[in-house]
Amino acid sequence: MAKSGLMCKIGPSVLNANLAELHNESQRLLDSGADYLHLDVMDGHFVPNITFGHPVVKCLRTKITDAFFETHMMVTKPEQWIEPMADAGVDQYTFHVETCNDVPFVCRKVKEAGMKVGLALKPGTGVEAVQQYIDQADMILVMTVEPGFGGQKFMRDMMGKVHWLRQNYPDLDIEVDGGVGLSTIEACAEAGANMIVSGTAVIGAEDPGKVIATMRDIVEGSIQKCQLER
């Protein structure tokens, strides 16, 4: 384990799992060593796909009572779903700054509802879009693909955002999501990401536990190296 307050957390995305077996698939990922579940919520407006909403999340919570749930809200009106997701048992509510006219208001409402705040950036959005709100957030998510579809190719040039955030906010939780697997985890770790969302690479693996453990070793090694250099 890394010798600092910063911890590696692996949160598989269930987007590419068999959603008809959502509970079993989710439990399998947790049993394989996942630290949390990353639940992709899409409304068909902010992104062209539709996945599932708070009723499904609430049903999943009745089956999995103790895992950390993060909902990645790829929705046009994030303020609309705060109370329903809190009621569904969500622990962290991650929404896109691109959809928001009043980011501090949504952050405050999320916290009042008892959830942690995550702020997400699409690939085309500069890191300066979240800079003024970082003190109101628990985590920043740097998308490494365009949101809306699973299985896309990792955008390596997004690592500049991750590196800038880690340099300026050494204790901040920084998450990466999109195309992250064994071939791209080193780039994420070296840039400074400590929260890793991985979908296809974990769910499609013959041994998901081995993939998660390998990624964890690489990220924790980078965290330790970073701490030694500070």
UniProtKB/TrEMBL annotation:
Encoding gene per record: RPE
What are the entry keywords?
Carbohydrate metabolism, Cobalt, Isomerase, Manganese, Metal-binding, Zinc
Which Pfam families does the UniProt entry name for this protein? Ribul_P_3_epim
Major enzyme class: isomerase
Question: What family is this?
Answer: Belongs to the ribulose-phosphate 3-epimerase family.
- Its recorded name reads Ribulose-phosphate 3-epimerase
Q: Origin organism of this chain? A: Cryptotermes secundus
Stored CDD domains: RPE
Per its UniProt record, the required cofactor names are: Mn(2+); Fe(2+); Zn(2+); a divalent metal cation
Q: Which SUPFAM superfamilies does the record match to this protein?
A: Ribulose-phoshate binding barrel
